[in-house]
């Protein structure tokens, strides 16, 4: 399960409505109700919005060791992050892709089960859900340059597949949507001259009605405008004022 650290002091308002959290050393650990690991999102307060890193969970320690070796052999510089640097999470391997974004791989995290459901004869969904009722973390969209080199790392080393793309009139890829699961995409990149820009993190809801209700809650909590629907048919164009940071 990927997790992301958005660095926006206001972000905990809507997310805390949707998920359950635990604070630790200034961090807020969050999970949606269907997620079985202890957390999928970590927030910390900062002066401006952004994303420290996005991480993907691998099958086991053996796979983590092999992917780390593959990254190094490919010429990617890696950094070791010790276990428990994030509470109840095992060691992580961090690397930065050519678009300027940091990613991590890890194999172990404390299993706590789905929130509000018994491990034996569970109900279909937990009682007492509040707010946006997010089911799970879904994906992130990043802005940056060097999409082709970033694509090579995700596809040739990490095993992602290209789900969708946008080509300019010269045939250059200017947007790429990558998947490593059954989802439409797990991570996406749109070309932008400045490196390391974060556009959004997305959460899965069970219905279109749920999305509309979540939008109403966001409007009540936050006054800042948002970009609307996403995906290739309506992928948001780079904002020269905010430089893609949401």
UniProtKB/TrEMBL annotation:
Gene3D superfamilies: 2,3-Dihydroxybiphenyl 1,2-Dioxygenase, domain 1. Residues 1-108, 136-246 form the VOC domain. The keyword Transmembrane does not apply. Residues 227-246 are annotated as: Disordered. GO terms for molecular function: dioxygenase activity; metal ion binding. Homotetramer. This is Catechol 2,3 dioxygenase. It comes from Marinobacter salarius. The lineage of its organism: Bacteria, Pseudomonadati, Pseudomonadota, Gammaproteobacteria, Pseudomonadales.
């Amino acid at each position: 399960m990927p997790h992301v650290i958005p660095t926006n002091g206001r972000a905990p308002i809507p997310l805390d409505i949707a998920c359950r959290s635990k604070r630790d050393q200034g961090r807020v650990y969050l999970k949606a109700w269907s997620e079985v690991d202890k957390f999928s999102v970590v927030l910390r307060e900062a002066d401006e919005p952004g994303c420290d890193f996005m991480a993907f969970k691998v099958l086991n320690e053996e796979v983590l060791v092999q992917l780390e070796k593959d990254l190094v052999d490919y010429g990617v510089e890696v950094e070791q992050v010790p276990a428990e640097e994030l509470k109840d999470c095992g060691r992580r391997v961090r690397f930065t892709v050519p678009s300027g974004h940091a990613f991590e791989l890890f194999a172990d995290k404390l299993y706590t089960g789905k929130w509000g459901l018994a491990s034996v004869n569970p109900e279909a969904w937990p009682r007492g859900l509040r707010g946006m009722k997010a089911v799970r973390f879904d994906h992130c969209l990043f802005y940056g340059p060097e999409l082709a080199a970033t694509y090579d790392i995700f596809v040739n080393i990490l095993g992602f597949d290209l789900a969708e793309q946008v080509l300019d009139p010269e045939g250059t890829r200017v947007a790429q949507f990558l998947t490593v699961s059954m989802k439409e995409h797990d991570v996406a990149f749109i070309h932008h001259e400045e490196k390391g820009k974060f556009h959004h993190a997305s959460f899965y809801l069970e219905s279109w009605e749920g999305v509309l209700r979540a939008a109403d809650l966001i409007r009540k909590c936050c006054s800042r405008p948002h970009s609307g629907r996403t995906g290739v048919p309506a992928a948001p164009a780079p904002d020269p004022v905010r430089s893609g940071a949401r």
